[in-house]
Structures are given as structure tokens and as C-alpha cells.
Design a protein that fits this description.
The protein is built from 19 helices and 4 strands. With 500 residues, the chain is mainly alpha-helical. The strands form 2 sheets. A two-stranded antiparallel ribbon has the order 1-2. A two-stranded antiparallel ribbon has the order 3-4. Strand 1 and strand 2 (151-153) form a beta hairpin.
Length: 500
């Protein structure tokens, strides 16, 4: 019970902290718009969204991964680091001193450069691995646009016309970091790791792009703010994007509490979500897709890197986790919108735009943290896939599924522009997926006659692979047990009730 209360307190504290930072981001953005120039809030968003939210969450995920994995495995996790101050030296502080210890270690450790390695390309590798991933979050809307103190404040860094094409283009640059790191290290093991990482990333880029075509077709846009949409109460008119309902069961427009099925990407494109999430997860090169760390050498393309250069490779993986969660939330889970009651909240908080923006911005980051936890859950649940399994998943499963999804989605959108037919098809897919997940393989009955004697455990071997006492009989069954224990049980199933 104490652990449950501790977890609930931690969740409440995290949500309150998120709300405080979101409120500060909107307030500072409005002040910048008033006293600097039009569009100055985009610059403050770089500080709050990318440097504070993305980087701090990614840094804390290095600790959260160890703590959550310990929780899954019924361990305590990291708790030995202490701060030598009065009143704190005997407190573990939930393992937070480990973050400072890891950071100081990487910042102060010697930067090693291999002999005969290309120094310029060797130093360029970590930068190319980190910078493209970090830049991806620039197009993700993390909150609604509101009029605050007579100024317009957006909670996004950039809104280019090419939207998702920017995502594909910048994400593809990360492969140069892994390839250069492996090649420039003048180490054959690092080169092999770089080749494996590069081939994996290139293989899944195709499936990654195809998985989002259905979303583009459904919303007729490649811009994330347009896909996320706006409530009817925000700009007037009708709700757009994922803010609008496919079917609304309660609350007529402008009256009552609205409940319905929102136009979220997960309902329209469940197959696209699975393809995108799997492909993007493979792009992070984390378990179970950690092929760069090969079984034969257990090292990757960054084996020659030390200090903060290794730290850039490490933190880039966690930044990818946060960016993937943000993009997934924006495309498939309504972005910052509530699942129900969005119009009701918009109407009642119309005169308190700062409260409204803080509420929805906090809800967006709660979704991001939930998806981060899902990724860590997957990382600590599945074992490492073989190289051939990873390539088979990418080329023989995700790619054909993505092509089928594109053709079917295009046909349904053309046939029914209201997207209801596409939603029915998506709900059918979710039902099939749920049925497959909950189904259990029925164990077959015991074989007639000698049971396991001639099965997988038979022919003179016990269940542990040791030789049995007699040919065709394992130790737990009749003949072997009679020799071991001296008194054999009745063989009702094997010999029709006869005993020895």
C-alpha cells in the first residue's frame, strides 16, 4: 500500500509540475509578443518545448527506465547515490542523484580519439546522431493557440507548409550519424555495428512513410496543427481535425456536456498506428530492435566513444523516445484535445484563456509521458530480435500492410468523405486486434498410451533433457518412476488401469 501511495503522489506531483511549466510557457510567450516583436513566442517555445520539456524529460527517462524496469522486475532500483548535505546524506531521493552523477561523469571524463581515425568525422558523428532527432519536435503542437493579453500565442516552434515531409526528411539524416560513427572509428566492430544500424534505419523508413499516408488522406493535410484541429469554441465555426466528433451522442452544439467518438487517428488508422509506432520504435535502435549491439561482440557503433560524445549517443535515444511520443500523440491520440467534453470546457473557459491553454497543454504532456512509459514497457518486456526477424518485419510485414492500408484508406475516404466508413473499418481492425490479443492457445490433451514417452520429452529423456530410465519413458512417468522410487503409481492412463 505504501508503494501505491508513493506512486500516486509522484504522478500528482509530475502533473502539477507539468501544469506549472505549461502556464509559464504561455505567460512568457505572451510577454515576448507584447514587448519584443510579432512571432517572438516561437523563440520562447524553443526554450520551453525543446530545451525544458524535451531535454529534461529525456534526461529523467535515463533514471525512469531503471526505476520502472526495477518496478516491473520487483526490484528497488538505483538508490545508492547520496548528496553529502545535512539532512540529505541518508536519503535516496528516488534515485535523482544518479542523474547528476551520470551527467558529471560524462562531462568530466576524457574524450578518447582512436589512433588513425578521421578526427573531424569522428567528432561529427555524435552531432549528426543527436541534432536531427532534437529538431523533429519543432513541428509538434503542444497546446492550443490562444489570445492572451491581446496577443496571439502559439504553442509550437514552427508550422512549415510541408509539415510531415519535414519529419521524414530530418529523421532520415540521423542515419549519417550512425554510419559516420562506425566508419570513422577505425574499428571493425564499430563498422559492423554502424552497418547494421544503418541498414535497419533505412529499411524501416519506407514503412514509416507509408504508415502516415492514410492520416494525410483522411485529413487532407500534411501540417500537424491542421491534423490536430481546433475546437468550435476556439475560432468559431465548426470543429476541425481530430477535435471534431465522428458520432456525438450527448450535448448538442453549444449546449450540454459533449460525449462522442472523436476523429482521432487511432480510430481511423489503427493499422497505420501500429506500422508507424513499430517502424519509429525500430528507428530508435532500442531493444528489442537493438541490432547494432550484435550478439557476437556485444558492442555497437559507438564503442570507441567516451565522455560526452558517448553521452550524446545515449541521450539521443531518449530524445527519440520523447519525440516519438509527441508525434504519436499529435497524429493518433488527438494531440492536446480531450477525448470527451472538449467543447464544454472550451465554452466554460472561454474567458480564461490561460487556464484553458494550461489544461490542454498539460493533457498533451500527460499523453506524451504515457507513451514514453509504453515504450519503456516494450523495451523491458521483449527479448532482442534476430537480424533476420527485424528485416522480415520491416520488408515482408509492415511494408505490405502499409500498402494495403493506403489503398483501402484512399477508397474509403473517396467513397465517404465524412470519414465514418473509415472509422468503422478502423474499429473493426481494433476489434480483431483485441480478439487476437485476448485469445489463448489451448493446450492439447495428453497423448494416449505412454503420454510424453514418445513426445517432445520422450525417447529416453526426462523434461530436463537427461537420459530416462527406459526408452520412451521420462522420469515423471511409470517405468522410470518405478525404478527410482521403488513403488510406482497406477498407470490408469497409459496401461488401462494396470499396475506394476
Amino acid at each position: 500500500m505504501k508503494r501505491v501511495l508513493t506512486i500516486l503522489f509522484a504522478i500528482g506531483f509530475i502533473v502539477a509540475l507539468l501544469a506549472a511549466v505549461v502556464l509559464g510557457a504561455y505567460a512568457v510567450g505572451a510577454l515576448a509578443e507584447q514587448h519584443l516583436f510579432v512571432g517572438a513566442s516561437r523563440l520562447t517555445n524553443i526554450i520551453f518545448l525543446m530545451l525544458i520539456f524535451v531535454m529534461i524529460i529525456a534526461t529523467l527517462l535515463t533514471l525512469a527506465e531503471r526505476k520502472w524496469s526495477a518496478l516491473m522486475q520487483d526490484r528497488i532500483g538505483p538508490n545508492r547515490a547520496r548528496i553529502a548535505l545535512p539532512g540529505l546524506k541518508n536519503m535516496s531521493l528516488a534515485g535523482l542523484p544518479f542523474v547528476a552523477a551520470d551527467s558529471l561523469k560524462m562531462l568530466t571524463k576524457e574524450a578518447f580519439h582512436p589512433e588513425h581515425a578521421n578526427r573531424f568525422l569522428f567528432n561529427l558523428g555524435p552531432m549528426l546522431a543527436f541534432a536531427p532527432v532534437f529538431a523533429l519536435f519543432a513541428i509538434v503542437p503542444a497546446g492550443p493557440s490562444v489570445d492572451l493579453w491581446n496577443t496571439r500565442v502559439d504553442m509550437v516552434v514552427a508550422t512549415p507548409d510541408f509539415g510531415l515531409l519535414y519529419l521524414f526528411a530530418i529523421a532520415s539524416l540521423a542515419v549519417y550519424g550512425t554510419a559516420l560513427a562506425g566508419w570513422a572509428s577505425n574499428n571493425k566492430f564499430a563498422l559492423l555495428g554502424g552497418v547494421r544500424a544503418s541498414s535497419q534505419m533505412i529499411s524501416y523508413e519506407v514503412a514509416l512513410g507509408l504508415s502516415l499516408v492514410g492520416i494525410m488522406l483522411a485529413f487532407s493535410s500534411v501540417q500537424l496543427p491542421a491534423i490536430v484541429g481546433n475546437m468550435a469554441g476556439e475560432f468559431g465555426g465548426n470543429a476541425t481535425g481530430q477535435a471534431h466528433y465522428l458520432w456525438q451522442w450527448t450535448g448538442s452544439p453549444g449546449h450540454g456536456f459533449d460525449i462522442g467518438l472523436p476523429t482521432w487517428g487511432i480510430f481511423l488508422q489503427p493499422l497505420g498506428f501500429i506500422g508507424f509506432f513499430a517502424a519509429a520504435f525500430a528507428e530508435t535502435k532500442r531493444a528489442p530492435f537493438d541490432v547494432p549491439e550484435g550478439e557476437s561482440e556485444i558492442i555497437g557503433y559507438f564503442v570507441e566513444y567516451s565522455g560526452m560524445q558517448f553521452g550524446l549517443f545515449m541521450i539521443s535515444e531518449f530524445v527519440e523516445v520523447v519525440v516519438l511520443s509527441g508525434v504519436t500523440a499529435a497524429l493518433f491520440f488527438g494531440g492536446y484535445h480531450l477525448p470527451i467534453g472538449g467543447e464544454w470546457v472550451s465554452r466554460h473557459l472561454h474567458d480564461q484563456p490561460l487556464v484553458y491553454a494550461t489544461l490542454l497543454g498539460t493533457f498533451f504532456w500527460v499523453k506524451v509521458l504515457a507513451l514514453c512509459f509504453l515504450q519503456l514497457l516494450i523495451r523491458w518486456t521483449f527479448p532482442r530480435f534476430r537480424y533476420d526477424q527485424i528485416q522480415t518485419l520491416g520488408w515482408k510485414m509492415l511494408l505490405p500492410a502499409g500498402l494495403i492500408n493506403v489503398f483501402v484508406s484512399g477508397a474509403l475516404v473517396l467513397w465517404d468523405p465524412t470519414l465514418r466508413s473509415l472509422a468503422l473499418f478502423g474499429l473493426l481492425q481494433l476489434g480483431v486486434l483485441l480478439a487476437l490479443t485476448l485469445s489463448r492457445k489451448e493446450s492439447g490433451g495428453e497423448a494416449h498410451g505412454h503420454g510424453d514417452g514418445h513426445g517432445a520429452l520422450g525417447h529416453g529423456h526426462d523434461p530436463h533433457g537427461l537420459p530416462g530410465a527406459a526408452h520412451g519413458h521420462a522420469l515423471p512417468h511409470g517405468h522410470a518412476a518405478s525404478h527410482v522410487g521403488g513403488h510406482a503409481p497406477a498407470h490408469a492412463g497409459a496401461h488401462g488401469g494396470s499396475t506394476h
